[in-house]
Amino acid sequence: MKKLLIFFILSFSVVSLADQSTTNSELSKNLDSLSDTNLEGLLDKNLDGEQDVFYEYSDDNTYFELNDSNYDGKVDASCKFDSNDTLVNCKHDQDFNGLLETYIEYNLGMAVREGVDLNNNNLYEIVFHYQSGTLTEGFKYIVEKTGKKMVSKTKFQFGYPVSESLLETTLSEAEFSNLYWNRK
Length: 184
Description:
The protein starts with a helix and ends with a helix. It has helices at about 1-20, 25-35, 40-45, 175-180; strands at about 55, 65, 75-80, 85-90, 100-105, 110-115, 125-130, 135-145, 150-155, 160-170. About 20% of the residues lie in helices and about 35% in strands. The protein folds into three domains: about 1-40; about 50-100, no CATH class; about 110-184, no CATH class. Strands 1-2-3-4-5-6-7-8-9-10 form a ten-stranded antiparallel sheet, with helices on one face. Strand 7 (about 125-130) and strand 8 (about 135-145) form a beta hairpin. With about 180 residues, the protein is an alpha+beta fold. It contains four helices and ten strands; from the N terminus they run αααββββββββββα.
């Protein structure tokens, strides 16, 4: 992804420079002036001198893009890409507490399902399902102060909520997580 983005920027720069009817020597000088510091904004998003985007490459030609989106020096998002630069999955720290509690799974680069582990126990208390990358339904496991267990179900149309229901359940948190995560 990084290589592709840098290639695009360099290609765009060459096309832009060529469109200005520059001579070959001028074009060469301009290309030589392009350096990693000119591309710094791609890895240092807020230009504070600290890298905010990192890449880790695996032997199987997959790689991870790691992002520090709130510039605190900690990874807030970790996204895995396959050898064709297609997004496979992402983990996000949406509340910036240092834990990647949200997991999104993709198929052919489109979201399929998403789970949120609110209490860091490796179980999803919130699960979303997508069709063709569009949010279609969501479920939340709720335990009231009285101990009563509930499941909130929200239906979505074109990614917007259209109905919601609240049902009492006997499912444990683990049973909810497994059942609703694997729901087809």
